[in-house]
Specification:
Arc Repressor Mutant, subunit A, mainly alpha, Rna Polymerase Sigma Factor, Chain: A, about 190 residues
Length: about 190
């Protein structure tokens, strides 16, 4: 099977493809959260790269390739699900693709691992309970680490909207997780 770099036809396309391919893993994780299906996620990522290669002249060198690819992937995803947005975006995935994977230190005991799992489950449930427009911003900014400006570009909204949605989302998370934090003795 030819690689993305091998199918590059235009001058400079190979360098572009090499830079784009470095984001494969993070795009696949994002696609898995959107589709919740490994086969569909693979197709979505493949179509994202095909479209990126086709429209590479619209990419501005020196800008964030990952953000540009995420915007393409997000648009392709919404195009495929014309009935509206999906019911929810999953934060936990399967195996190596999960967003909140269990990381065990050699020094952690089973009780610490169990408590961490409970806390992680509470956070996942709280984030998944957010309205979709707030959840999407939390995933891009707090999970994927995109700056506000790039998140605004991906979502196609003003930066102030990103900041407002993120503030509301974090406030909602704080309210929904406060009882758990009090119960656990965190606050």
């Amino acid at each position: 099977m030819p690689t993305l770099v091998a199918v590059a036809e235009k001058p400079g396309q190979a360098a572009f493809a090499e830079e784009a391919i470095t984001n494969l893993d993070v795009l696949y994780r994002g696609a898995l959260r959107l589709t919740r299906d490994p086969a569909k996620a693979e197709d979505l990522v493949q179509d994202t790269y095909v479209r990126a290669l086709r429209y590479q002249e619209s990419y501005r060198p020196g800008t964030n390739m990952k953000a540009w690819l995420f915007a393409i992937m997000r648009n392709l995803f919404w195009d495929r699900f014309k009935g509206g947005r999906p019911e929810s975006l999953s934060l936990d995935g399967d195996g190596e693709h999960g967003l909140y994977e269990l990381v065990e230190d050699a020094g952690e005991g089973p009780e610490t691992v169990a408590l961490d799992q409970i806390a992680r489950d509470e956070v996942i449930q709280a984030v998944e309970a957010l309205p979709e427009i707030h959840r999407e911003v939390v995933l891009l900014v707090d999970v994927e680490g995109f700056p506000y400006k790039e998140t605004a570009d991906i979502l196609g909204v003003p930066i102030g909207t990103v900041m407002s949605r993120l503030h509301r989302a974090r406030s909602q998370l704080q309210k929904s997780l406060a009882p758990y934090a009090r119960e656990s003795g965190i606050i």
